[in-house]
Design a protein that fits this description.
- There is one protein chain.
- By secondary structure, the chain is mostly helical.
- It is 73% helix and 0% strand.
- α2 crosses α12 and α3 crosses α11.
- The chain starts with a helix and ends in a 19-residue tail after the last helix.
């Protein structure tokens, strides 16, 4: 083979080595991002460090395949130890790259679905409670307006009405308005303080990030972060709503039971659970291991194997003296 051809083959092998490792690097980086909560401080050193080591080992294996003697760069260890090192490095590479496939082609969509269900549950509870609270205080305002008319007739006093609605007598006497509508509006405003206190207690339970749905849909490794924030909100609902409902028993708030909230909390994303996903897809994981390592080893398979020394054509003869 000519020197020019050998140089071309050498260049092809070197380029294929870098291309194959770059492909694996992408999957490895994405897999570590999902597994470690989108932490660049972990994903960058893990993925680039493993690929750097793998590049070095593949280079050694290629040289051992071509040379008759171990080179100085291989520390004269021979093939077997370096294949052992290859296996040790390929295990985490395969593990995280398979996780990328498991997330991208299954768990990511499942996580988005779980997040959407949690958002809907919280939003529905919020809308229902707001409607009940609004209706309750509108009715209170209407009832106060009716009782306020009785003060002028001497049937009721401001003190009795104030005690009945848990507001101050001064607030009752200060109800004003030139028309029926204005007076009615003012009686509803008399409950603004009570309504504000209730909303202050209940709103944190339903406080959602308005960008939650958008973050779930995007491809930005934020899905697990959204799920964790929703679970924090659901846990607060579970801890607080029963107490709030008991404190405001006259309003008859239709808040979700703890068991219903628990069902939502039990819907878990496995984006950061690579081992669980690996075990749940054993067959596809084995296939992916073979494909990933085939890509990594492709430059080795393309490299020229060491040729055995040519056999001698001489025929053994006996020399007679």
């Amino acid at each position: 083979m000519s020197t020019d051809s050998k140089e071309k083959i050498k260049l092809l092998i070197e380029n294929s080595q870098y291309v194959c490792l770059f492909i694996v690097l992408i999957g490895l980086f994405i897999g570590t991002m999902y597994a470690h909560g989108a932490s660049l401080f972990l994903s960058i050193p893990i993925s680039f460090g493993l690929i750097f080591l793998m590049n070095y080992v593949i280079g050694i294996l290629i040289s051992l395949r071509k040379e008759t003697r171990p080179s100085s760069s291989s520390f004269n260890m021979g093939k077997v130890p370096w294949w052992g090192i290859y296996i040790l490095i390929s295990l985490p590479i395969s593990f995280y790259t398979i996780h990328m496939f498991n997330v991208e082609f299954g768990e990511l969509e499942n996580t988005r679905s779980i997040g959407s269900e949690k958002i809907k549950f919280i939003s529905d509870c919020k809308a229902k409670s707001e409607a009940i609270i609004k209706k309750h205080y509108e009715n209170q305002g209407l009832a106060l307006y009716t009782d306020y008319q009785a003060i002028g007739n001497g049937i009721e006093t401001a003190e009795t009405i104030a005690e009945k609605y848990n507001i101050s007598a001064e607030r009752v006497t200060n109800i004003f308005g030139n028309t029926v509508e204005e007076i009615h509006q003012n009686t509803k405003m008399a409950f603004d303080n009570q309504k504000g206190k209730l909303n202050k207690r209940i709103e944190p339970c339903f406080d959602l990030d308005i960008n939650s749905t958008g973050k779930l849909a995007m491809h930005n490794f934020k899905q697990k972060e959204v799920i964790d924030a929703l679970d924090t909100r659901l846990q607060l609902m579970k801890d607080s709503l029963e107490i709030i409902k008991a404190d405001y028993s006259t309003i008859q708030l239709e808040l979700p039971a703890s068991s219903d909230i628990e069902l939502e909390l039990n819907k878990k994303s496995l984006i950061d659970q690579p081992l669980v996903l690996l075990r749940s897809n054993p067959f596809s994981s084995i296939v992916l291991v073979l494909i990933i390592n085939l890509i990594i080893l492709l430059p080795l398979f393309l490299s020229e194997r060491r040729k055995a020394p040519p056999k001698s054509n001489k025929i053994n003869t006996v020399t007679k003296h």
